[in-house]
Specification:
Length: 93
């Protein structure tokens, strides 16, 4: 299903531009929300790192809920998973 949607979006240039612009605004808004900063004061680095990471979490979780809601993780599992990822990253540095 996701592959079909991705293929359709790739074929429709205007839709792709619209979605790309919406994602850019979403990344900026998410970074601002997490930092407690007005959107117009959020730097590009925060948008690319913090906003993009949060967007990836949202879209990945949304995809799981849409495709297999019974197996999608709940909030406590997401938090535990993020903590585990942090431990793995810290161990490798």
């Amino acid at each position: 299903m996701v592959e079909v949607v991705a293929a359709c979006v790739a074929e429709v240039v205007d839709l792709r531009r619209y979605l790309a612009g919406s994602q850019a605004l979403g990344r900026q808004g998410l970074a601002a929300l997490l930092l407690g900063t007005p959107e117009d004061e959020v730097g590009d680095t925060a948008v690319r790192r913090l906003g993009a990471a949060q967007m990836a979490l949202f879209t990945g979780l949304m995809t799981q809920w849409l495709t297999d809601p019974d197996q999608a993780p709940d909030a406590s599992e997401i938090v535990a998973g993020l903590r585990a990822l942090t431990g793995v990253i810290d161990a490798r540095e």
